[in-house]
Amino acid sequence: MASDLPRLKPDPVPEIHPVPEHEAGGALGDVYARTKRGLGVPWMGVVAMAFAHYPKFYDSLWAALEPVVGSEAFASACQSLRDTAEAEAAKLDPPGILPRLEHIGYGRRELDEIRACNEVFSDGNMPYVLMATVARLLLEGHDWPGQGPLEPRQTPVSAGDRPALMEAHHADPSTAAVYADIRETLGLPFVNTDYRAFARWPSYFAPAWTDLKLAVTGPGYSNAVLTVHRAATDLALALPNPTGLTPGALQAAAREDAVLAEVLSVVRLFQGLLPGLAVNVAFLRAQLAQQVSRV
Q1: What is the pLDDT of residue 157?
Q2: Helices (H), the chain
Q3: pTM (2 decimals)?
């Protein structure tokens, strides 16, 4: 059954070809703008940029998702997935980080800025998880049977501002070492946008990552991520499918771009990665939950 979809990580990790937003012009720039506008996010996730490398595949996938993402069903699915990620992260017992930050001089304004940055990803990662899950289900031959209503979402989506990123070529040696540790620990050739945004505050992110790494490599983490993965699968299957996109149609589109196995390996990479990213961002959010006295 599709609801029993195993969580996979391709081995070896496939090569990906994301085009950065600032380099995307013409038709690709339009695709990026439609994606961000539709999902209500201020940044193109690496997942969507990697998918967009296969234009026929991505056009077919987005044509089916675009009428869905503005619905109440999609908003509800994203909120449910976020709630699951945050509940699972709480089980990992995130240690509070605020006393350590206050000790080195962080004030309320700076902490609120970090929280606001986290909120961008706590909320915005969920559409990407669902996108990757729908793509994998269809490419693997599972039907997308969702027949729910397409009622417009009750609260209009607002993307907000794109977070500033600490790119690898701007990072000092200590931040570069954190990035290398993230890649090694997570087994990935890139550092997610989320972490590059949090690294804007290096004296916050280094200890935050140290705590998170202990959770990622400790007991309970795999089960937490698996729970989010399963929730994403169930929620994706229940989404409305107004265009009636079939596995055969998406597979055919992917074959126009590359060998199907290549596209599927990229989709599996992100569909396996993103539930863990959702848990990780929720863990970092929980670290910041306590209020501090400094103004």
Answers
A1: 64
A2: 26-39, 46-51, 55-69, 72-91, 98-103, 108-139, 173-186, 193-198, 202-216, 221-238, 247-257, 260-287
A3: 0.93
